[in-house]
């Protein structure tokens, strides 16, 4: 016997799940719905199938092909027009020369098809409709039969006053070929509305066979979620491809998946985990289905959730009775309430709340801390920028994929002169190598040559750019704040971080896909840079007082973090006469970098070693060699602020004149130190490029940030953690200072920093009101608005990329600083409420 599977519907009622998929291909227990129907037919001995397609037919064809992989034989029929349920079957008439069965491709059922077939033959029917009982028949076609099963009446989606039965049409029919003669060629006809009523009017042998078992029409998102719940409750048995973990538990694990049970992960009820999915930390998963290649971070809670393939859920997120489509991703501490449907490739920011039954169409972006109360369908917010300052960053192999970075490389190369050369380097993380290689491929396609310095500290790359003739550079590294993310640092011809205008030039080409393609005979070339370290080493040694360090022999303990700097820094310090104790100095290609938790443990270990060895200092060097964390001679870890003040104090004691360059947010104790020693202070915007540009001016002795980056123009004006170590030791020896004493300098005043949540649409209004407030006070507008109140000051600075406003205050005592911070926090909160009210009143 043959079966016809109806698989041509648009699936409008179940959007957004069907935006990118035909409804029969929606995953159910990690398998397309229609594959469950194929399994049902096979169990009843039906292996000759005709699939009727219309909407997105290629997706179905590419999956099932000729059917041999699934133990069936498939023919496809794709009508040129939408001919309705019966008209489409008429289009397949040439394949239907015997009794055949019709079934919908979007049902979930386990009813006995053989019983319907036997009933049909016993009654010698022309057509038999499989019937079942449901509690709410209003949304279905009710069928009335007599005692012999002959159909006497149809009620298509009746009202309650018309309902005389709970028996409905399941959409499963057994049909004789002669019935197709009732359907005109290439005409739109429906079985329930046209063909069956006509047969009933002609008193044709039309029967209904009532069947027991599970049956569900997955016609909308609520029905889809209910079907998933029914699978979890065991109301219907389906094929689950993932192997069963243990016979006494309903936990199914795909190949190469992992769960950190030792970390406290909890799995309860029916849990299906697709291939290559990683469950990390203390995740709690109940009655949930997780697709392939998904990642769940620590503290994620899933209750009745359905995650399709390639979903990334960050720590602390809670999802209840909701669906996340392919390639969706959430930030940290997101809450998704029951009934929510998140479309494919949608990104949800940190702390967002998606209220009950909200539907989000594919490729949307939900801002961090947003509360979504209505469906997000139109006006989708495409990602407007790739760059955050000089960086392009994202989740490795989720947001930053080889495909993405190849296109980004082509876009960057298209902004450069044909035949020019850039430098390319990376840290020792394996994913950085993967993404750099694809990026370089994009550059070559645009006719750009690449000098590849392989694994290389970022300061060596910036030094090379500042002293030679390449037109720019890129460095790939693991994000220091998120081990699952990669950062691509873009540099100009002088080794400075990309400006906003440079980033926008790349973005324009990327989004317009206006890539320059080199002729097949003129792609760029790749060249090694074996001598990059040598020039850097020579200049490094000349910029430090070797005699002083050789005489004083300071002892330093350095955690080199398995970074490329391990091949360079210890040898330089030894040659200068320092005693160096190395930790994690073996350079190795790592699958994953250092997490913040691991860094905390390394710092604790480093502190103990500094005390035991009575060392001058301890250093934890960032993996790219740009940032560092300092430990003083008593084993106390300096914060980034304390490190900036300590190095400024050292520079003041080591120089008779000159200029310190610091961001506008730096503490005022730096100005006091400079004034006492004859140095000046230049304050700039907080971004790294502004600081380095100021550092290139004559007379600059040091530039520093509040995130652990320092530049000493004695070698080059770019940030350099390697040279900072040597220069710090030199200044400590010359001044006779100790880091512990210098650490106390930062504690003379009280410095507070708080982030106030604020979406981008309100930042401008808040800064306008802040400027109005500052007009009657002593204020500066270098970056944000900084207002002086006697000996105290406060800075209100909107974050360039995140939905927050930075609020920084400094005063002589903690009480004054706290009151000042709270005063302006209340102002910002009140202004934000006013702006929200104004928005709600807009027509």
UniProtKB/TrEMBL annotation:
Task: Keyword check for Protein biosynthesis, yes or no.
Answer: yes
Tell me one GO biological process term: carbohydrate metabolic process
Return the Pfam families for the record: LbH_EIF2B (PF25084), NTP_transferase (PF00483), PGM_PMM_I (PF02878), PGM_PMM_II (PF02879), PGM_PMM_III (PF02880)
Q: Per the database entry, which stretches of residues form a coiled coil?
A: none
Which GO MF term does the entry hold, naming one? nucleotidyltransferase activity
Could you tell me which residue ranges the Alpha-D-phosphohexomutase alpha/beta/alpha domain spans? 393-516, 535-635, 643-743
Which terms are listed as keywords in the entry?
Cytoplasm, Initiation factor, Nucleotidyltransferase, Phosphoprotein, Protein biosynthesis, Transferase
Q: Where in the cell is it found?
A: Cytoplasm, Cytosol
Task: Please list the residue ranges annotated as the Nucleotidyl transferase domain.
Answer: 2-232
Q: Which residues form the EIF2B subunit epsilon/gamma LbH domain?
A: 256-352
Q: Please, which domain of life does this record's source organism belong to?
A: Bacteria
Transferase in keyword set: yes
State the similarity comment.
Answer: Belongs to the phosphohexose mutase family.
Stated name of the protein = Mannose-1-phosphate guanylyltransferase/phosphomannomutase
